[in-house]
Amino acid sequence: MNTEVIDRLVEKDPSLESSRPVLESMIPGTYCIHRSWGFGLISGFDDERGMILIDFEDDERSSHAMDPVFCIDKLELLSEDHILAQHRKNKEEIEIIAKKEPAELIIKILEQGDDGCMSTREIERILGYMLGSAKAKRWWTATKKVLIKDPRIAVPNKKNEPYVLREEPVKPEQEILQDFFEEKRSYEKIALAEKLFDLASEKEDLQTDLPQVLHDLTIAIMEAKNLSQADRLYGIWVRNNLARDVEEDVEKLEPTSASILKECEEDLPALADLMPAKFHSRFLDLVARTYPDNWKKIVLNLLQNTAVKFSGECAHFLIDREESKLLISSIHSWLDEQNLKAPVLLWMLKFRKLSKFQDLLGEMINPRLLTAVFSAIDYESLQNATSRRIPLAEILSDDRELLADILSKGTEENAKDLAQALLLNPGFEDLTKRSLLARFIKKFPKIQSMLDGEQTSDASSASTSMEDTLIVSKESYDRKLADLDLITKEKIPENSLAIEKARELGDLKENAEYHMAKDDQKVLLARQAELQADLMRAKATDFTEASTDTIGIGSIVELRDLGTGEKIKYTILGAWDSDPENNILSYLTPMGQSIIGKKVGDNVQIDIEGNEQALVIQGLSRWVDKK
C-alpha cells in the first residue's frame, strides 16, 4: 500500500500508527497466509473501495478484495526470503532439496524461526503449504527419523518442545546421554535409553558410559514404584538391547523378562494389551521360551482375550509356527461353544482376503460366523455406555462385499433368521440396519415379505404401516442413500467451513458471503432431514413380486382410449422412479392410483387437465420380465 492511502487510514484512526509497518508491507507481489483462506499472493489495490486484492490458491475466484485494516491481525505477510516465498518462486529447486536432502530443507525452515527455534505445529503448517497435506505428512514422518541423527538439529523429547537449530553441531547420542543421567523419572529414563539404542549405530561411541547406563537402567526398573509390570518389561527389553554388545547372555540379567511374565501369569492378556505394538511379536516369543510345554494354550488364550491388534499378532504367530490347524480348530470350537469374542471376529473379517489367511478363513466366512458377529455386537452394545460406533458393526456396514460374500454361502432360511436377528440387534443405527437389510433383500428378495410380516402385529398397524411406507426400487433407494451420504459427509462439513471463512471477513450485517453460506446451510439441513425421513419410510423392492393377473407396482399396462382408439403403454414403478418421457409412472401418481388393482378388460376413468377420458386395459405384463 502506498503512503498516501496509509496516511488517510491513520488520520481516520490514529491507533493504526503502530500498525504502519504491516500496512506498508501489503504491496503487490507479497505472499501471505490468511487464517481462514490459506495461502495467497497480494495482486493489487482497489483505490475506489480501499481494498487490497489477494489471489488465494484454494479459491477459484481471482483478486479477492479484503479490508487492509481488518487484515492487520488476520494476515501473515511473508518476506521475500521466507521458505514458502522461495518455494513459489522456484518450486523445482526447493522440491529437489526436499527429496534429496530433507534435513537441509528443515534447516531452511528453522532459519525462519526465532533464534532458530520452531514448534512441530509450525513446521507442519509450512510443509502443508509447500507439499500439500497428504504428501507433507508422509514426508515429515520419514524426515523426523533422519533429523534424530543430524548433529545440527536438536530434536525435542516432548511434543510441546521446539526443534532447535544448533549453533555448534552435537552428536545426538551425547545429548541424550546427558539427558539420561540427569533424568530422575523412571519411565522417561527408559524412553531415553531406547532413543540412545536407536541412535548409537556405532556402540563404540557408548563404550565408556554403557556400564553406568545399564546400571542406572536396572535400578530404575527394579526400584521405581510408579512403573507397571508392562513398563518394567519394556524397560528390560530396552536394557537388553543396549547390553548385547557387552554381555554374553542378556537374558540372565536381573530382573529377567521371564520373571515379569511369571509374576503376571494370572492375567497375561492384560499385560499383553499394555505392550507397545512393536513389542507384540517379542512378547509372544518370550511366552514360547518361558513356557515351552504350554505356550500354544497360552497363545490361544491371548488370541481370544486381547484387543484386536494383539489378537491378530497371535494368529500370525501360530501360522508362522506351522500351527494353522490348531488355530482353525480352536476357532471352530469357540464357535460351537458360542464363545468367539469380538477381537477374533474383527480380525477374521478384516484380514479374510489377505493371502496369508485367505485359504484358512475362506470357508469360515459364512452365515454361522455372522450369527456370532451379531451376538458379539449385541453384547458390546449393552456394555458400551457411549455413543461411539462398534467396530464389528462398522466393518459390516463399510465393507460392501462382506455381507454378500457371507449370504452367498447360505440358504434363504439362513438369511431370514439373520435378517430377523439384525432387526432386533441394538448395536446398529436405524439407517445402517436399513442399508444392511437392503443387501439381504438384493440376495434374497423374498425376505422383503417376511420383514413386512414381522414388522406389523395386527390389521390396524398393518394399514398404518402401508400408508406410511414408500415402495421404491433398489436403484432409487441406493441413489437416495448416496445423496444423504454426500450431504452428511461432504456438503454440510464444507458449508460449515465456508461459514467460518465468511465470518472472518467481519461485519456480518453487510457480509454477503456469510449470508449466502447460511442460506446454503438451511437448504442442506432441510434436504438432509427430508432424505432421512424418506429413507426411514422406504421399502426397497426389485418388483419380482408383481402379479401377472392384477395391476400392481412393477406392472406394464397396455391401455386403449375408448373414444379415439389410441393405444399407450405405461410402466408402474416405485415412488421415486417416475420418468414421464419414457411413460414410467410412480404408483403414487393419479394415473397409477386409478389403475392399481385393475385387471385386463376393466374400464378406467381418468381426469387429464379437467377432461374425462375413458380407457380399457388391454394388456398386462411384469416389468421385471422385460428388463
Secondary structure layout:
Elements: H1 3-12, H2 20-24, E1 31-34, E2 38-46, E3 51-56, E4 64-66, H3 68-71, E5 75-77, H4 83-89, H5 91-100, H6 102-110, E6 117-118, H7 120-131, H8 133-147, E7 153-154, E8 163-165, H9 172-182, H10 186-199, H11 210-223, H12 229-243, H13 257-263, H14 268-274, H15 280-290, H16 295-305, H17 308-320, H18 324-336, H19 342-350, H20 355-361, H21 367-383, H22 391-398, H23 402-407, H24 412-424, H25 430-443, H26 447-454, H27 459-468, E9 470-473, H28 474-503, H29 512-537, E10 538-541, E11 555-561, E12 567-573, E13 584-586, H30 590-595, E14 603-608, E15 611-622, H31 623-626
Parallel strand pairs: 9-10, 12-13
Antiparallel strand pairs: 1-2, 1-5, 2-3, 3-4, 6-8, 7-8, 11-12, 11-15, 14-15
Helix pairs in contact: 4-5, 5-6, 7-8, 9-10, 10-11, 10-12, 11-12, 15-16, 16-17, 17-19, 21-24, 24-25, 24-26, 28-29
